[in-house]
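Margin note: ligand = adenosine-5'-diphosphate.
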Amino acid sequence: MPYAEVAVNAAAPLRQTFTYGVPDGLSVVPGQAVYVPFGRRTLQGVVVELAAETGLVEVREIEAVIDSRPMLSPAQVEVARWLSDHYLAPLFDCVSLFLPPGFNRRPLALLRPLASLEELPRLSLTDKQQRVLAYVIERGEVEAEELRRGLGLTNTPSLVGALLRRGLIQRSYRLARPQVRPKVVPHLRLLVAADEALARASGLRQDGSAGAASAGSGRRRRRAAVLEALAEEGSLPLARLRDRGLTAAVLRDLEGEGLAVVEDVTVIRDPLAGRVYRQRPASALTDDQGSASSAVVKALEAAGPGPPAPPFLLQGVTGSGKTEVYLAALEGALALGRRAIVLVPEISLTPQTVRRFGERFPGQVAVMHSGLSLGEHFDMWHEVREGRYGVVIGPRGALFAPQPDLGLVIIDEEHEWSYKQQEGSPRYHARRTAEELCRLSGAVLVLGSATPDVESRFRAEEGAYRLLELPQRLHQLEDGSVVPSPLPEVEVVDLRVELKEGNRSIFSRALSRGVEQALARGEQVILFLNRRGTAAFVQCRDCGEVPQCRSCAVSLTYHASEAALVCHYCRRQVASPKACARCGSRRIRRLGLGTEGVEEEARRAFPGARTLRWDRDVTRGRHSHEAILARFLAQEADILVGTQMIAKGLDIPLVTLAGIVSADVALHFPDFRSGERTFQLLEQVAGRAGRGPKGGRVIIQSYSPDHYAVVAAAAHDFQALYEREVRLRRRLGYPPFGRLIRLVYAHTGAAYSQEQATAMVRHLKGERDRLGLPNLDILGPAPAFVARLRGRWRWQIVLRGDDPAALLWDLPLPRGWTLDVDPISLL
Ligand code: ADP
Ligand code: ZN
Ligand code: ZN
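Resulting structure:
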């Protein structure tokens, strides 16, 4: 095949390929990385297709092959092309997902001789050329950089060029392994007991407030704050303590008094490294688990030519043993000599799940995560490509691992939003992409969740997915056998009533009582809060009413700058009401409460209890997630206050009560998925309670106890939620009944940004009419939910219809615009 279609790493956002000639003697296959001339530069590219002919009159030739082995398998090349088409993203961006880490760095150029020492005198070379050639001949193979240094000549590149042109040496490339440096992070470690640190801190605070605003009082206060943080964590990175007030002077004070010391901590990057797992044998599966896993294994056995198996949707309530089904399916795949990829929402939040995989298949599990250095990642990529690991486990990006003989892909908690890439390009969804990957490589896909995405469940109803169900939560007995156990009971507390009856605390009487009872019995409690509580919407404290947009069915957002409520879909703007539209009450308030506030309140309300907080603020270090979980598991705290994070796959047997401090924040986000999202969160949090022998209960506090998502969660009724969502979305044309594309424009000029967005809407509408595209709504422009980000004013346009991509297919977007196909959120 003399021609190759190449995806080129040009800075421009190009969706097309470029045609190059394949020079004689160069063997090139799809998936291979090459150097190609592009304008006056030489760029990297990846061959996506070979062709016998071209319609072009003049084509340039591929310059060199970067690595003799293809980087992408044929199936992966097809997935990259699909990604580019589906997400309207530059082809090279899509190809890049599959490339080894460090690909963008300069590869090593290796020189090999094509002449012998005897021939040298007869070649009529210059002196310098002779020296270069002799050097290469003597070594057999030499790296260009080493040659330059070894000879100490000023113009080696041009000498090499001359020899290359005369065919006396040959050049090839190899990707250089990036250097690995152990990652060391300076920490401040407490040298005294936590109690003492706290006592000192409170002493400092008293001194600080006594002497009014003296020069030293701020410093004392900062010292106290640092001590308090250390008392909590023992040791913290200096960088994080700076937020708490650590300065050079404070550090000197603490070190001088012998209270704390700075030390370097080596960050361990491989969550499985250095841990020896005792192999855990397979559990005897229950009947439900057995039939689910054998359906998957049958599909694995049937894989091969013929129509690919549809993906499985494994819907099982929390604690129903989905992970055991994954493990059995993996065993089946490995027994057939196939390999697997397992996706989890976030490695650091799911340590228990990762460990279970490591325990079942010791030595066969590779964990990919963001803490790997470039060098480690590079090594892992190459080891995986060699087939070293039966199972690769990681967040969404692990889907692109070069796993040979891929037979099985598992996506745990498939409803999680982290499976969608939300920045950069392409903004792919791992679930949708996994479908393509599995279809094209003959692999089986298993999606698992207790609360599937409404769209996934809809696909199952349509027959596009095969539904497998685990309807019962399991409870393990002493002897290791399991029995069905009920899901925790859920009580919904109406906060409007609490308020009417004079309770102004953030904890209802029922929740306070519940917490006290659990504490008295030595059990543990989780208090959950949706952290993004700073988002503002207004709500009537008497009837719970939250003003909504009439045409978009989403909550209106309060904008302090205009003192108005704004719809973030259609931009409708209304004055912030003085009184409730439903009940006339004048007690309207803006919502917003953070985890810190909840922890403080909990300390006050339950003075004997030890509290622990788990949110993004306290877990910036890589291992602190696991550390917090370990402390809670070891019963070093009684109450865990946290955000979404605690909703993930944790198994904490002593938790008998999960309190949801407010269900309302997630509920009233201006997004059509907020009901679904709330249900998922509530169900997942509820799933954390009552996993041990003592059972458990859940208390949901809400000003909107009648909201369908709250009602459905209280009854653990996925079906009710699902049916309601499907009705709503069918009526409004939201997914799965229509597709969405979101366009965002960002610019530092507020007025300019709005003008550009307005002009774009006009242009898009013109194009739509010109192309005669039916069923395509162009909504907006409206200010983005985050109206100003990093100094840029953001405006958004939402396309909604059967095939909104058709409008953008041939329409290059000017600078400043970003595009999100199938966005998971319109916030
Ligand atoms: P899920 O992933 O659906 O939340 P898990 O797989 O974590 O559920 O199972 C819940 C608990 O039940 C775990 O502690 C697990 O070890 C246990 N378990 C599940 N299936 C079995 C089984 N067949 N035999 C013994 N224990 C089981
Ligand atoms: Zn009201
Ligand atoms: Zn609207």
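The chain has a mean pLDDT of 86.
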